Amino acid sequence: MDIHCPTIREESFQGIVAFISYAAIGSIISEKFVSEEHLTMKEKLHNFYLNSKVVSGMLGRGRTGSLSMTINFTFQHEQVKKEDEKAICVYWHGSFWSNEGCEVISSDENQTLCSCNHLSSFAILMASTRLKEDFVLTVITYVGLSLSLLCLLLAALTFLLCRHIQSTSTSLHLQLSLCLLFAHLLFLTSINRTEPKVLCSIIAGALHYLYLASFTWMFLEGLQLFLTVRNLRVANYTSAGRFKKRFMYPFGYGIPAVIVAVSAGVGHSNYGTRTHCWLNFQSGFIWSFMGPVFVIILINLSLYLTTLWILRHQISSLNNEVSRIQNTRMLTFKAVVQLFILGCSWGLGFFLVEGVKDPIRSVIAYSFTIVNVLQGVYIFLIHCLLNRKVREEYKNWFRKMIKRTETESYDLFASTTQSKMMDKTVNFTGKSSNISAGK
Fold first, then answer.
1. For the segment 18-32, what is each residue's pLDDT rounded down to a tens digit?
2. Has domain 135-395 been given CATH number 3.40.50.2000?
């Protein structure tokens, strides 16, 4: 206990200071008396336990009230503090532990320095900063991503093999599908492989790149949709036609590579944590991902709203040409669903901050998870199942498959029948020879 002499003179007429260290009282007033409502914290903590002896400080004849100057206490940890644990200076407040009026000055693996503005019985409380896994959210994540993987695989095969729909838009859909496919697959299989650390860092860097590339292609999707819709209003407008592939690929894959290269050069140690192969949240390094994502979401949202405004104006000025109305309405529907495909729904993640409390936080977390893990389903639904040319191509493929199956079945039946007839002929010839020999 470190106390200033002026404090002793002011608070104790006899100049008496008492410091008591209890050997076993910590097992009696343990973490069972910890309640989050009595602790002032900026973050969500759990798994509390006492990690020091309980000590008391007194002045004069047992005075333990508020003081004009703070007093410092240095506690030795009974267990080594882990990386994902936080030390809290607490005091005994009648029937529970509280940290009001106390703060942590410094803390390392072996000891913690506390400063308090009053005297009482003190201890160090440890708490885990690791987020608790929600079982339901985990199931939704893995089931949703698995379904998205299947849909993304089917969508990628469709964009590759369906020649009648080959265009700039198809190339954009294909690259977005491939980036999300590899990102989701790597996430499902390797996000928890924290050992060895070098491999975990590589996995984190690969996820960083793939998800950034996905958002870059989402931006190009939004730009292409905007140019296509604007072409409906402006006569002989050819901006969408200028959207050349030679500009798409360097931008779609080059920009994420530059961001990851700079991030790795500045803070390569922030790739991979003790619990997940992802970016470190503690040092603010996560903004190397959230920053570009935030910019792309804002741009795509502005393009999306502008696209809807153009479509609304276009529909109101149309003639009674049914085909043109139907095409524009389909574009309107696609523009609405494109909100999810363009990644704007990821903006919900920015509301998952510590200041948001349950149940609002849980609602946002579930909405964010459900909407975003099904991104591959949206792509397959809008760009494949609701595309008339793709449906016609699917029908042709199924017809060819059925015809091929029928042909193979017929060939198999014919070969089986022919072999049976040959066996009967051989048997009949053998019997005839035996009869002739007997005669």
1. 888 888 777 777 777
2. no
